[in-house]
Design goal:
heterodimer, A: 346 residues, alpha+beta, six-stranded antiparallel β-barrel, 19% helix, B: 710 residues, eight-stranded mixed sheet, six-stranded antiparallel barrel
Chain lengths: 346, 710
Amino acid sequence: MKEPYFLALFLLLATVACPLLGADALPDVIEEAQTRIVKIYGAGGFRGLQAYQSGMLISPDGHVLTVFSYVLDTDYVTAVTHDGRRFDAKFLGADPRLEIALLKIDATDLPHFKLSEAVEASAGTRVVALSNLFGVAVGNEAASAQRGTIAAQTSLQARRGQFETAYRGPVYVLDATTNNPGAAGGALLTVRGQLLGILGKELRNAQNHTWLNYALPIAEIEASVAQIEAGAFTPALDKVDATKPELAYSLELLGIRLVPDVLDRTPPFVESVREGSPAARAGIRPDDLVLLLNDQLIQSCAALREELEYIDIDGEVQLTLLRGDDVPELSEVVLKAAPEDSVNLP
Amino acid sequence: MKIPIVQPTVYRGLSQFSRHPRGCSRWINRNGRENGTVPFVSSGGSILRHQAVNRHVLQRVFLALVASFLSTALLSTALTGYGAELAQLEEEAFRAAAARVAPAVVRIETLGGLERVGRVLAGTGPTTGLVVGEDGYIVSSAFNFFHRPASILVRLTDGTRKPAQLVATDHSRMIVLLKIEVDEPLAVPEFAPREELRVGQWALALGRVFDGDAPNVAVGIVSAGNRVWGKAVQTDAAVSPNNYGGPLVDIAGRVIGVVAPLSPQGDDEVAGHEWYDSGIGFAVHGDQILRALPRLKAGEDLHPGLLGVNLRGANPAISDAVVANCHPNSPAQKGGLKSGDRIVEINGRPVGRVAELKEELAQFYAGETVRLVVARDDERFERALELVAKLPPYEHPFLGILPMRDPLPDGGVAVRYVYPEGPAARAGIQRGDVLAGREGQAIKDASELRDELAQYEPNGDVGLSAVRDGKTLDVTVKLGRLPEDLPPDELPPAHAGTQPAQGPGAGSSISVKVPEFPNDAWAYLPRTDRPELPRGLVVWLHDAEGLEWDALLAQWKQECDRGQWILLAPKAVDPRRWDRIELSLVRKLIDQMSNEYVIDPARIVLAGRDAGGAMALLVASQNRDVVRGIGLIDAPLPGRIAPNEPLQRLAFFIARSEKSRHAAAMATGVQQLREAKYPVTMKSLGDDSRPLTAEERAEFSRWVDALDRM
């Protein structure tokens, strides 16, 4: 007689659990979210530049969040909702730093995402990306859904020139090819339908020549969106890349001569050290290989030259060197220029 | 130090029930249908009846009630599909699996090296490695080092950087072993036993290329267990330079293999990388890496083990493993294998098709010994053969004759022409003799004799019986090397009593079309009164200046008629350049012409000037089975030359001008071709690039005519 009780208990659990499960079913999640995605049409359409992108409704009154791109670079931007209605979209403002823009269409009672209800997630979270990739959806066709997993949470700020974007901040990297032409401005959701982020523009990773599939977390853009909404806030694009100081370090100043730069990526081996120079004082020797400059990997003679130009002469230069062929070892040295060093330049 | 197991039973269970895309539970499966993949919706009603068979009636009524409620509940659950709890459990399992192996996934940074290798741009970015020894051994994909970096750094999970030495490379599986000095033991991952691998199970590909504390994870399933000749497992997890060198792990975080770009066809570091993020990815089997480790640790580079046989049949999946030819001085030849032998067993494992043999052989490296069981006629014998890394370049032997092209009713090969002072001439063979037997066996035709001769070496002796005026002469010919110079004389006709017909209608220009390609193509059929006799085929691939068929034909018509070869010229869709997709157009044109006309397979030639020549080389490299000659006029030669093949003869006719932009590259290319033992007939055009003169065209035609030499 044990079994029936067990089953009854299960029945109870199943009945209770059912509505909970039902609310989160993936097809339902997608169906609902698709109504909040709009197709955006604007400038472009030549030289391989697509004249379309995606956007998401973030208020019942027609506020559309999308990416800031050349597509919006016209007075005639059109947004088409999931049910095929076409609207002229008014440009409210943009944040060039985050590369997002806010548009407004003239409608009410629209289904929409609430930015305030967005969540954050970690690697391994299953996600759904909704966008009009390749402009495949037209008229009353809904946005395309793709599934994937968050591959990593990382930051786009680390290296100069790694990614061609003004945005420097955290992103979700995805393991699915979500960032295709037209997908930018689409939504990234958990499989439970919670908003996670906005799909970014197409980006190539200059370090390994692969396309990056990523989304900006809503938390990064929420404040900016609110400011744009409040009063057409358009912050100037401040130069986020470190500016070169007026007086910077150089190899000559440090007293280091590198081997002749003949290859594409000549490794920065020290050829000779000038007597009495900061390098000599720090104990740098010929044949040392410079690996890191202030903890940043230096991959060639040219890169070392370039990176030194960003270090103010009042600061310090920390170099990590590789020494010895048979038993290579790392050694760290700190170089500091004294006033007389610049006088002693050959 | 071993990484502690994180509740492996839980995740292993999960991996089983979460494999089904729509919700179904293990609890139900055990009671429901045996296959375990029935969703709730179809099994809800019947489960409990089965459970309650021997119970009291009341109990049954109660159970029936329960069942009906339950099935309703389950029905709604099943319809909703993706259970939130299941999704959450899965995500937790993904994270746990990644976290478990993460300490062994390290970042690799490189300094220096090449900007690009061939067509592939080398990245500078970090790549990934997997710790396999707590004393500092790390494996990675050879792809990550194809740019030959000057220095390698390993960044451990605690952020410390260590200089690494590249200890050895496995050239068969494209895996490298690195070594770093360690202060304390590194975390070593657990490997999943191979026999537990199931297609459809979860597979996570990990890399460590993005900034942050955690590795990057791509989630997918195992798509196939044995790929690329049994070396790799296939997955649909997104695989790219973002995780090459990292592990592919199961849902319990145990290593299935090491992610690497691989291709069943290519064999260099970058082969297969063009498939990145396209739903197909490979990881080299973990057990094979572990097996190779001791030799790699000893600093030994491992190479694919070669047997030195060519096998019969074009399709490895359906052809039996029958030896067509043994490479001179190869392990197979030294072991006494002969043409016609059937390989039936390798190290105790039965082998049927060519593909099975290749897969079994791919498990072994050069220097290892395999035991083959070979069937010859009615006997079977066993041979232990030590595989080698490299076969000496194969060189074709030369008998010194051209064959007549009419088939003989009783078989044999009639001699059309004897090369003056060649091997046959020295042995006393004369024009008009019929070669009837070789080493006591009857000769069927010229094509068979050419293939049989391929297993001799230059300088080898072959016994032939020649029939002259009804008498048989037995001679021994000391074979020579294929000549690069053209036959000095005007060649006698290749057919008995034929001269090109003079009548009307013979000799016509036709338009050729391959249905699925938009390209135009034209062909000229030379004048003949015996269309049943095989003719040569020269495919002209135009350069960036495009194609003017009438002008081209005006130049070559006379030679086509005299040399009895068909001229075929396709036009690129964009007449200024050839597209890769047009590679298969050329193949289809050749196949189509071979179906409609009698084409001599020994005389199919691709020719072109400049970019057209480059296209000819590309087409030839992918169609070695049909192309027998390449004619190049001031065209770039490839840096990498494929090895010469006994049964896939290839000869070159190269015309070069001193001031051509390709002159230097051509000079080194020709040298490489000759080192690889391809016969190269050279023609100097003087200082400036120019079209061939009538005399040079006649020489080219004579070269085409003599391609069926032996």
